[in-house]
């Protein structure tokens, strides 16, 4: 009985771990350098840093999309 309970708990934990969505925006933003650039440009102003970082991410995503399109065309 105890073995079945432990096995069921382990399987439930694995299934729950697999179904958790992974946030890819932070993974995409890391190589762009937006966080470091925003922190360097606006060290004391959190709102300006957030706005700059959001704009930077938008440009980065557009750049990456253009690069993928260029690879497909070539």
Write the layout of secondary structure elements.
Blueprint: H1 2-19, H2 25-32, H3 34-41, H4 46-73
Concise description?
The protein is mostly helical and 74 residues long.
Folded structure, characterized:
- The protein has 74 residues and is mainly α.
- The chain has one domain (23-74).
- The chain contains 4 helices and no strands.
- It has helices spanning 2-19, 25-32, 34-41, 46-73.
**In sequence order, what are the helices and strands, one letter per element?**
HHHH
The tally of beta strands, per DSSP, is 0
Shape: elongated
Strand content: under 5%
Mean pLDDT, to the nearest integer, reads 80
| Count of the separate structural domains | 1
Backbone structural class: mainly alpha
Q: How far apart are the termini?
A: 61 Å
Continuous helix count: 4
The main pleated sheet reads as: none
Compute the CA-based radius of gyration: 21 Å
Uncertain stretches: none
The helix content, as a percent range, equals over 70%
Looking at this protein, list some descriptive labels.
mainly alpha; elongated; about 85% helix
């Amino acid at each position: 009985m105890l073995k079945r309970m432990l096995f069921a708990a382990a399987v439930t934990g694995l299934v729950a771990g697999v179904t958790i969505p992974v946030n890819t925006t932070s993974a995409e933003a890391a190589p762009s350098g937006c966080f470091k650039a925003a922190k360097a440009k606006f060290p004391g102003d959190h709102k300006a840093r957030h706005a700059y970082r959001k704009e930077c991410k938008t440009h980065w995503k557009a750049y990456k999309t253009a690069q993928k399109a260029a690879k497909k065309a070539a």
